[in-house]
Amino acid sequence: MIKNILFDFDGVICESVDIKTEAFYEMYISSGEDIAQKVKFHHLKNGGMSRYDKFKYYEEVFLEKSITTERMNTLSTQFSKLVKEKVIDAPFVEGALEFLEKNAKRYKCFIISATPIDEMREIAKAKKIDKYFKEIFGSPTNKIEWGKYILNTYNLKTQETVFVGDALSDFNAAKKNNIHFLLRQTKDNKELFSNEVSSISNLTSLIKILNTYE
Questions:
Q1: Is the distance from CB of 179 to CB of 108 less than 8 angstroms?
Q2: Which long-range contacts (CB under 8 A, 24 or more apart) does 38-43 make?
Q3: Domain extent at residue 188
């Protein structure tokens, strides 16, 4: 029986993946269409990877130059300005808000995101959903480590815990921590996962799926 749920945020609770895709594209279009398209493709194939790791990769691999701490901070600030308000205004994934409103007291719920932790908490508070979660986590600590932290801190049983995510980083965090994984399947991640992975297209059926776990 599932008692604990770890949620990714972008693409699982909030329909915000496209917002961030376009932001990455916009930030690199000045380097040319080819670079911008490479950035966009990489971002879509590496959901759940922190923006810091992405910027490091784009600067060093695509632009072939080293990235300083100052440059990293500038890029991160620019990205936040492009996306934060848009994410706050973005719609919830179908069924997500209704699930939280009805079931947050039934389950121990957490957010583990690749968004910087302070920004993630600000967004959750602005969307008025922070009250539904025991804790909200983000980068720079990775999802594997946050999963381990939650399990140990709250003394959760692995067989009673599921990670609901939409990226390989979510799947890997679940696998490394020996907990269940449930995929929110979209057009962007469908080819990344095998048909053997349990999946849902939105969260309207989440409670029904959770009830199938023994």
A1: no
A2: 38/62
A3: 4-14+91-210
Q: How many domains does the chain have?
A: 2
- pLDDT tens-place string over residues 8-48: 999 999 999 899 999 999 999 999 999 999 999 998 888 77
Write out pLDDT tens, residues 80-89: 999 999 999 9
Report residue 17 as tokens.
């993946």
From 89, 108, 140, the end of a domain falls on 89
Looking at the structure, tell me whether residues 196 and 99 fall in a common domain.
yes
Rounded to an integer, what distance in angstroms lies between the CA atom of residue 100 and that of residue 5? 11
* Closest alpha carbon to 37 in 52, 19, 22, 59: 22
Token representation of residue 195: 């048909």
* Contact predicate 154/108, CB 8 Å: yes
Residues of the chain predicted below pLDDT 50: none
Q: Do 59 and 65 touch, CB atoms closer than 8 A?
A: yes
